Amino acid sequence: MAMYSGEYGSVQGFDDLNRFVKLGNRSLLIKGKSGTGKVTLALELARNHADKFEIMFISRKMTEYDLSNRFPWVKNLIKPENILSTSSTESVFDDASFTVTNVVSSITNRVTKVENPFISLEEHLTPFVILDVWDSIAKVDVPTRTRIEKLLISLTDKHVGFLVFLTENMESSTVEYLVDGVVSLSQNFYKSYRLREMDVEKLRGTHISRAKVSFTLQGGRFRIFSKLSHRIPELPKKFSTIEHTEAYYSTGNPDLDEKLNGGFRRGSIISIEMDDDVDRFVYVPLLAPLTLNFIVQGNAAFVIPAADQDASAVTRYLSPYTDDETITRFLKIYGDTSDDELTSPPYIIQRAKKSFEEAYNIWIGTYGDLRRKTGGCVLTMDYSFVELEYQDEIQSILKSIIKMSSKIRSFKDLLVMVSRPNYKSLEVIKKISDLHFRIFEYNGSTMIAAIKPQLFLYNVQTDYRQGFPFAALQEST
What we know:
Elements: H1 15-22, E1 27-32, H2 38-48, E2 53-59, H3 64-70, E3 83-85, H4 96-112, E4 126-132, H5 134-137, H6 142-158, E5 162-167, H7 175-178, E6 181-190, E7 193-203, E8 212-216, E9 223-224, E10 248-249, H8 254-259, E11 264-265, E12 269-274, H9 283-295, E13 300-304, H10 312-315, H11 324-330, E14 331-334, E15 348-349, H12 356-373, E16 377-382, H13 383-389, H14 394-411, E17 414-419, H15 424-432, E18 435-442, E19 445-452, E20 454-463, E21 470-475
Parallel strand pairs: 1-5, 1-6, 2-3, 2-4, 4-5, 12-17, 12-18, 13-14, 13-16, 14-15, 16-17
Antiparallel strand pairs: 6-7, 7-8, 8-9, 10-11, 18-19, 19-20, 20-21
Helix pairs in contact: 12-14, 14-15
C-alpha cells in the first residue's frame, strides 16, 4: 500500500541535522543495533546535501549490488566507483590496521584524482563519506583505537567534507568526544507494531529543536514523523467523493479504505480511544473526510461533538468544501452556537439543558429524521464529554450506547464513538465495537493504531494538498 510513499514526510524533521551539516561541521556518529536504520539515515542525510558533496560509501557488509537492491533510490546518488565493499576480502580485513590503511587510501586517492585538469580543485565536490566498517576497526585495544579515531577525524580537515561513522555499539566511546554530532537509533514495540526512535544527543553549534524523534523506514526511506498541521488551505476545493459500495462505507480516504479492505462495513460500530494528551485537531483529517464523503453523496451525517465546543468548530472544517444546500440538507450538528436560536443555521440542533434523557431523545429524533431523507447515515459522538456533562446519569449513558448501537446495526448505518482512558463509556464502546482504534502521542507525533483487530499503526499528518482536510498516513515500520 502506497500511503503517500512519495516525498511527503521524507525530509520533514531533518531541519536540525541539515542545519548541523550546513554550519560546516565535519563528522557525525550514528549509533544503533542492527536493523534500526543507521545506513538509511546516513544515505538520506547525504541525499539532502548531494549538491555540495560527492557521496562515498564504505562497508564491510554491503556490495554495490546489495546497496542498489536494498535502496533503489540511491542509484543516481552514489557513483559505482565510490562504493567500496570489504566483504569479499573479509579475512584480510580482520586486521584493523589494514582496514584503516585501505579506507584512508581509498578516500585520498578518490579525492586527489583530477578527472578534468581544466577544472580547479576548489570546484571539485568534497566527499561525504559513510563509514560502515567502524565496528570491525573499534575492536582493537584502546590506545590503538584512539589513534585510529584521530587519524580518521583528521581526514575531514584535509580531504573529507563530512564523515559519518556507523556503529552497533551503544555504549559511550572515545569517538563520541571527537565527532561533531551524535545520534542514536532504537526501536520499541506497541502491541505487535514497531515504533522507531532517534535520540539526538549532540549537534555542535546547532540548536536541537527535537531531541527525540519518531520515524519510519517505510519504502526504504528514513521518514521522520511530523506533528499535526493546523494550517487551513488558502484556496479550498470541493471535496472529491469516494463512492460507497453495497457492503462498505468509504472512510473518505482511499489509503485507509484499502487497509480496511474496503472501508467500514455497513452497520459497523467504530470506537476510538483518544489519550488525554492528544491534540483534538486530529479529528479534522480523520473525521472531516468521512463526514464530507457521506453528505456530498447525498447521505446524512449527524455530529455530536464535545460539549465544550461551539458548533462552528465543526462547520469550519466542512462548509468550505461543499455547498450550503448540501450542508443544510444532509448535515446535523448537536451543539451550541454563538448565534441565538432564531438566527442559528438550520443544521444546528440545540443542546438539551436539563437531563441526559432529554438529550438522548433529541439524538434519536434527529437520527430518525435523517434516516427518512437518505439511504445511509453516519453518527459521530464524543461520549467522554457526555459523561462529564451528565455525571449523575452514568447508567443511563451506558445503556444508551447499547441502544444506539442496536439501532445503527438494524439500519446498516455507521456509528463512530470517541471516549478517553478512565471513562466508563470507553469500556462499553470497546466491547461492542467491530473496530477499535487508539490515538496517542509518541515523541510529539500523533499515532493511530487499529487494535481490534490488529491491522496497522500510522503517524497521522494533516494534508491539504488536495484543497481539503485529509489524513496523510505514514506507516510505522
